[in-house]
Amino acid sequence: MQKRWWLTGIVLGFVLAILVYFIRFRPSTTGAKPVPSSLSNAGYVDPKLCAACHSKVWETYRRTGMARSLYRPTVSNTVGDNKKTVSYYHQASASYFTVFERDGHFYQRRYQIGLDGKPTNDLEQEIDFVIGSGNHVRAFLHRTPRNTVVELPLAWYAEKGGYWGMNPGYDRPDHPGFSRNVNYACMFCHNAIPEIPSSVEPGAEPVFAGTVPEGIDCQRCHGPGSQHVRIAGTPAAKLEDIRNAIVNPARLSAERQMEVCMQCHLETTSYRLPNSLVRIDRGPFSYRPGEPLSDFMLQFDQAPAGGSPDRSEQDRFEIVSAAYRLRQSECFLKSKGALRCTTCHNPHDIPRGEAAAQHYTQACLQCHQAALQQLSAAGKHPSGSDCIGCHMPKRRTDDVVHAVMTDHYIQRRKPARDLLATKVERRETDENAYRGKVVLYYPEALPKSPENELDLAVAQVSQKSNLSEGIDELAGAIEKYHPDRMEYYLYLADAWKDSGQLEKALPLYEEAVRRKPASLIVLQRLGTSLRSAGQLARAAEILKRAVEVAPADASSWHQLGLVYIGQGQRTDAIEAFQKATTLDPSLSEAFNSLGGVWLESGEPQRAEAAFRQAIRIQPDYAEAHSNLGNALDSAGRFEEARFHFEAAIRLKPSYAAARFNYAIGLARARRYEEAQQQIEAALRTQPGFAEAHDLLGNLLAAKGKAQAALDQYREAIRLRPEFGRAQLDLGEALADSGDVAQAVLYLRKAAESQQPDVRAEATQILQQLGKSR
Prior knowledge:
The structure is a single chain. This protein is an alpha+beta fold. Among the domains are: 47-240, no CATH class; 247-406, no CATH class. The strands form 4 sheets. Strands 1, 6, 7, 8, 9, 10 and 11 form a 7-stranded antiparallel beta sheet that branches. A 4-stranded antiparallel beta sheet has the order 2-3-4-5. A 3-stranded antiparallel beta sheet has the order 12-13-16. Strand 3 and strand 4 form a beta hairpin. 43% of the residues are buried.
């Protein structure tokens, strides 16, 4: 009997498409302009007021890297003084990037070459900000209509006279594209204090609805300046009162002085850990110079292997590790606080060139003058005046492989290896990410308190480093202290979910909702978790509350649409997905979901348009490529479908569903050998894939390998005893082999299938065999 490739392709292909796009989820954003925090109420003033009294410092500081950390685009800092369009080809993602000026505005564009040899997936975004002084790198940012800020893929690097390359994390086929949000932690260290919502929850999408300043200003190190300015403008004000109204870091203790610098320069690692944790009750920009840094945030590191630092970890050198590396140095350790960042650096004025070498050498000689003279006299030290070149050499960083910076680890001898040798970017995945205990790095110890015990436990689970121990620690601390804040329950719920125990996460999400009923992020987490647990009615109830709390939140509408799909409410799902795409035209997942509904509804043209838009937004979206392949194949356009199936597999070689769908298309095109290769590859990745075993049985049957086909059908039924399609195929095959008695057993089971087409065909075959249901 002829095999039904088209039935399997349309029905199962769509089911798998739904399954794969369910897993993609974005953090939420309201999309509306929230009420921003008032910087003036927090005591901040326009930093230009500082120039009136501090003109000399103002002029020198504005040329430093900190002052130039974020700014508006111009010809010179984007396309260059020649004003030519910048062009760059990224081989890994087969994408072309350009940077260009149009009508006084600057843009970054990406496109690819399609099957017809013409540009496709063309997307451009305006450059609203440049981040990075240009001493090492410049990246480019776009501010969306929803007041989020995203990093654009292409960056400029200062090394070798300047060249273009991909941002860290982008040098791979499936990079973030135009969707990587600039988070509050990034803005914290690259800018002055922006206006943000007055309440920020963990996991919420960062929103910059008000003023976004340009560059780190005086108040990041000196604290809010309103009182200082007010007193300074008061007639007959006393000099001491004026000085006391502002923080002068030089008057602070050595520890507090270092912390002013370490608020940004003490990153233990840029990879998952977490490297730091802002205290639960603190806002992301609430640190004030002079307060203990640990009141605002805690820094963490990996646990030393075997009780002592691993050599590879001890040599870890990353782009924001200046203070971290300095603190490992014997000079720092033996100085007992005397050696600080400001020993070498005047934050108001950075020397350059030969003047810089002399300046830093003089800083070293404050302690090492006598020793240098003795060693030089004995011929044990080379002549020269550049201490830094040997003892703090420039190195290529491990995390930003196109950047070369000074290593602040002061060492006796310069390493013999080539410190500037090119590096391949390390791609962090769930498989190679650090998994182990997260230890407190700064401060070195904390007093016993409920808050400290809870926060230390949160650090173990917040990025999944130490779930096995951290869940017990956080659960124990919550049971012991019963904290009021919902964040602790949210973190523990996420940890249980991350560990694969959703049933333990759900009660904690419910508790978090009870403690903060109007929390968008908590409602979203509970709603999506209920959907994953199959509790669709409750999931719909919770997600409806989420869209009531934030009607303009696209992610909530998308998640609600997925619940409607599970409930069979196709019309409601379409409305929800369309609402999501209207609110956030960059939400590729919502377009993919919408395409899936159109495909199931028998509207392949609409489905195709939605899938193509998802891919235009995110060209590395393997699920959307596979789904578009299904739509094209069902319309009889196999060669186009093949292009997208192969794109999905190239992007995700272990993507069994894409290989399965591709195999269906190949089988319908009678390319049985190729189809078998794809389905066997799918089964190597996912041996328990019942549908793939059934399809392999069909392929083997088409080649006349009856017994091998029977084995595959039986394996599919073993994996899924109620699999009607496999029951039907096994019954047919047994009937063809002459074993009618056994065939009838399976055909009768197929005739009870929930799938109408399977039920009808099984009934028809039974009638042909002279058997009733």
